Structures are given as C-alpha cells and as structure tokens.
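User: I'm designing a mutation panel for 4-hydroxy-tetrahydrodipicolinate synthase and want to avoid disrupting the core. Could you give me a predicted structure to guide residue selection? Please restate the sequence first so the numbering is unambiguous.

Assistant: Good idea. Sequence first, for numbering, then the predicted structure tokens:
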Amino acid sequence: MSLQWKGVFPAITTKFTAEGELDLAGFSANVKEQLAAGVNGIVLGGSLGEASVLNTAEKELLVKTTLEITGDKVPVILNIAESVTTEAVRQAKLAKEWGARGLMLLPPMRYKADDRETVTYFKTVAAATDLPVMIYNNPVDYKIEVTLDMFAELAEVPTITAVKESSRDVTNVTRMINRFGDRFSILCGVDTIAMEELLLGANGWVAGLVCAFPRETVAIYRLTKAGRIEEATKIYRWFMPLLELDIHPKLVQYIKLAEKQAGIGTEYVRAPRLTLIGEERERILTVINTALANRPQLPEYLSIAVH
C-alpha cells in the first residue's frame, strides 16, 4: 500500500483511563469509528495525541494496536516530536519496525532552532528512513516557521513529500503551489480554515474535531473536492463553533470532551493536563451540545468520487 497524502487524516487522541493508563479499548473503538466514516489515514502521537506524555513503549503499543484494526485499509502515521536529533532518528527507525507507513515531523522541541538548524534537523531525520515524511509547519504553537526558502532546501530530500500547513495563513497554500507545483502534498492542519485551503488546492486535512465528528469531517472534504460547494458550506457553517475548539491551548481537553458527548471517547487526559471543571467545562459543553442538537443530515458522501 503506497502512501498518498490525500484526504482526511485524523490526529487521533490517545485514550486514557481515569488513572492515567492507556485505554486501548476506548482507543480502538474510536479508530473503528474513523474507518467507518471513510478517513484516509491515521496520525498517532501528535499534539492532540498528547505526544509529550507518551513513552516509547506506549507509542509502539498504539502503532501496533492501530495496525491490528486498520490492516491495509489506510496508512498509519507516527508523529515525531523530539528535542534531540539522535532520538528523533531513533524514533523514525522504530516507527518503520513497528509498521508505520509514514512520519509527521515537528521541528526541534524546546529549543527555538534557527533556519539552518531546523533544516538540518529535518534533513537528518528524513535521510535516516525511507518512510514518507510530512513536515509540520506550525509557527503559532511551536515558534518556528518553515519558510518557502527552507522548503526549497528540504525538496532535495526525496522522503520529504508533504507538509501539514498550520501557519493559519491560507495564502501559504497558493505560495507553496506557485513555488513548488506538486512537489509537496499540502494538508491543512487548522480546522477553522480547512475548507478554504481545500478550495485553494490543498490535498487533504489533518483534522482535530474529526475525533468526535468523523462523518461530518469526511463529508466536507469529499463534497468540497467534488465541487458540491453549497452542500459542503452548509455543514461547515454548522461545524465552525466546534472547529474553533481546535485552536485553543486546551484543544486536547476540549476535543476529548466532544468525543465523550458524541459517544466515541472519554474526557480523561494525562497529567499535567487536567479535565475541565466549573464554568469553563459548562461553556464548552454548551458549544458541543448545541451542535449535537442541531447535527445536520449528511448526504451519501462515501460514494462521491474524489480525484
């Protein structure tokens, strides 16, 4: 199965018990919901997956558990978010041993590398594997922007084939296409501008609220790519108050609460994160429950051909 960076790739949340242990039953149930909804790949251990609190053994278990469910249906992608280049290289090699089909690669963590250091980091990790690599460009949260000139250098590495575009600047899609044509697949990484970027030529969507609302997410993608804009827009407008939960520092807690309310997850997180309480929890519940009460009727979107 070759990896095509195209379609909807859920940034899956990592399910925990109330005691903070991995909840593999809950995790597996959500992955099955994603597959039934028609997603095109699974991204493990991302920011939404609470990468910073997972150890290597847990990452291996998550990859292998996911592969037991997905088989050859969709590719499984492992995120790499490390502070040390040698550890990132080790994780890349382990990912292939475990059966992952691709990597999502963040810039160096904790240290704000300059352009040369960042490019060297990306090149070193990507050169250590034959798995396809998606660069995660998120200067808002990680304070490092991967510029067009940096991508020109990264284009020299054949395994670097995609970008998760999370700069929150929709014009970056056009700039990337103007500069590089189809050299890099572009996947939107910000829920609130996903339809806009798909219309501008993005190939896919690494989504967050898909964890709680997989069918609506895939429907928007397929309808948009099929040119059925009016239908997609109606769903997207309903979705927007929920999608805004993706751009908050507590996106993990917010989206997990949405999973709970939608019946396909729990709100448990691993410390130092804490579950929501008080007015904040009630406010987010209002957003979620209002959306659930007005959930739109979806067309038969899985039969829509997407090229």
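For picking mutation sites, this is relevant: Residues 278-293 form the longest helix (16 residues). Residues 7-215 form a domain with the TIM Barrel fold (CATH 3.20.20.70).
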